[in-house]
Amino acid sequence: MSDLVPIRRALLSVSDKTGLVDFARALAARGVDLVSTGGTSRALKAAGLAVTDVSDVTGFPEIMDGRVKTLHPGVHGGLLADRDTPAHMAALASHDIAPIDLLVVNLYPFEATVASQADDATVIENIDIGGPAMIRAAAKNHSGVAVVVEPGDYSAILDELAAHDGATTLATRRRLAGKAYARTAAYDAAIGGWFAERGEEAAPEYRAFGGRLAQALRYGENPHQEAAFYRTGEARPGVATARQVQGKELSYNNINDTDAAFECVAEFDPADAPAVVIVKHANPCGAARGASLSEAYRKALACDPVSAFGGIVALNRPFDGETAEEIAKLFTEVVIAPEADEAALAVMAGKKNLRLLLTGGLPDPAAAGTMVRTVAGGLLVQDRDAKRLEAGDLKVVTKRAPSEREMADLRFAFTIAKHVKSNAIVYARDGATVGIGAGQMSRVDSSRIAAQKAEDAARAAGLPEPLTRGSAVASDAFFPFADGLLAAAKAGATAVIQPGGSVRDDEVIAAADEAGLAMVFTGMRHFRH
Known about the structure:
This protein is 38% helix and 19% strand. Helix 4 packs parallel to helix 8 (130-140) and helix 18 packs parallel to helix 19. The model has no long low-confidence stretch (mean pLDDT 92). It has 529 residues and is of the alpha/beta class. The strands form six sheets. The chain has a six-stranded mixed sheet with strand order 10-15-14-13-11-12, sandwiched between helices. A six-stranded mixed sheet has the order 18-23-22-21-19-20.
């Protein structure tokens, strides 16, 4: 296997023509023969470059609107011939096939076409066939062929040629080959995922997932863990698609927490009311609706001002100056919002380390989607928890029905509980969380922790009693015993919302009636692990 391989002949066939002409011109200046296809050939010829059409190489015209043009021995023989195997080189000579030393292909924009919500026929037409075949062939034969799959590598190739008198090194070819296979794998994963979403099988025999590097991270959850952030191409507004206006580079934990915050705040329609969610360690530590974003922020912060320090703030409406003034009073890692006005930008500019992300919109909480988690030796795949509480889901099971105010707070609390790690207990009052218990092994412990946090917040605010007095409480899953419900009653809750479904439901209902609580069942569980 030779280390240095001169580039004498290059085949270029690209959908993304960024930098194409300059790159091809630099190759031609080194005496490289250019072979090309379709629109790429036309672009190069229009720039005055000498180009051989692939049809002249294959002796066969492009047919079927370009679907068939490079699937031919004249192309693949030139890519796959092992330069160190005499029989391969003899076969090239006997069939009058010239070797190809450099392949430049970027694929039909399948992922972008899906993201644009194009119709099925257009999506299918953007499934590349010849491109992946050539890329895989060149990458397999990287002992003699360099393969480039995106414009970002053009400069590296030119630098390599300049440093090695027109040749590429084995190290570069091997690196590019690995990238090429990863690219075709991610491409096929996107195609397979698209078909899976339209199929009738809940669990297809094979599933593949891929992404493109968005950011190499300084470390993962902890400094001793390496990490990186990849984008899948999904068009869902959020941290992966946001524009970072200012601030330090996002960390692994920033990205995870910001996603959690924005997905939670998106549950609240901005047309109904402004809403704010504050997240710390992937759990909401405060959430509220208000007459304005600034009021919603103050109400959310009051739930747990200690945990909110260094947290993530998500807004469901454009960020404004008044809200920015409030947020600026406390150390905050990230603010994420659909948009921001000039006043907010000006205030945040004074907080240079704070990351401000603008997404251009909110994710649809009811939209279908797929979630993936690794386990040892496998993947867990499930639908996104897109189920939302509807009026018809609610069943009053106690002697007393909730009041209108209690019902509003019950619905609010249950919506937040969906985004709190299990076991989850959420107290809410007047459209704001006033106590949150998250991630406990026992549901009664979550009830007690949430109540204790409410007491701490009340003392910090100088209130005569915790805001859990007169609150509504939500549980993400059923109460297996009455103890968790009684702990909520002790904290001052007057109404309860839970899925129901325990073998002891009758016992829990009886305890609620004895305590004078109103309780509704949803029949819907929201575990989050």
